[in-house]
Amino acid sequence: MLVLDLNGQRFNKAERRRRLLPLLNQRTEASIEFKRRNISAVLQGLGVPPLQGYLPASNIQREMVEEIERQMRDRSDVDTSALSAVERPTHVPDEFDFEKVIASPPKREHRVMEAAPAYLLNPIKRDYFEREANNRRIGRAGEEFVVRFEQWRLAKNGLGQLADRVAHVSVTEGDGLGYDVRSFWPDGRERHLEVKTTAFGQTTSFFVSSNEERFSRDHADTFSIYRVFDFRAAPKIFELPGHISSHCNLDPVTYRASFQ
How far is CA 35 from the centre of its chain? Predict the structure, then answer.
């Protein structure tokens, strides 16, 4: 199912779930669905895009992690499909109903910082989310989408002059400012928007730079992450205002931001 999903091919999740039932003693359809959510959590933790539609759920057994890692090593079609999914070209939709794009951010699972078990440290070949983060085509397309969204948002509220001043500063002024788009509050004050775009789901982790983290801390009253997700299928946006670490678990070494 994951390979089909990554390649954009259709399949029937419910039918596949029903076919599993005779093979699993005393399992219910609900338990299968929850196990698939556990698999999503493992895949996401390993840097692999999980199957869409299954929100990651924790409480994962060691045996599951080891089995998924084994399959990732043995299944070259997963690697090929995941690479294609994160590296394929992406374009901004020509027309879009911006009324439908606003979403609520996922809730962060607070965790006690402790050493990870050894079985969670086994390396895989690639971190596909990192590969996607380095895909400038999807990053630039997401930034352009946010520029259009901000222009629409301001114009809708009768602020056409401010809408005309929304700037894609990562293009016009360089990408070292700590944010990508300069927009405005209704009273004319500047807003600084850093755009993070993914073709995958709402809880997909993302990466920030030390410069972006520092800017978010020093300009918390004007800074926001705009997280664009499900970009190829049906783009949505949620906002994380202020310091990045107030919303995400931020790894102090890799600057990987996650909600689980």
Answer: 21
Q: Record the tokens describing residue 111, joined without a space.
A: 């965790």
Q: Which two tokens stand for residue 174?
A: 């360089």
pTM for this prediction = 0.84
Question: Average of pLDDT values for 227-245?
Answer: 94
Q: What angle do CA 106, 111, 116 make, to 5 degrees?
A: 120
Decide if pLDDT at 112 tops 70: no
Q: How many CA atoms lie within 13 A of 238 on its CB side?
A: 14
- Rounded Cα distance, 175 and 196, in Å: 13
At residue 22's C-alpha, the angle toward residues 16 and 23, to 5°, is: 85
Ranges of H-type helices in the chain: 2-6, 13-20, 29-45, 62-74, 76-87, 128-133, 136-156, 160-163, 169-172, 210-218
Tokens of 219: 């300009």
Are 46 and 52 in contact by the 8 Å Cβ rule? The answer is no
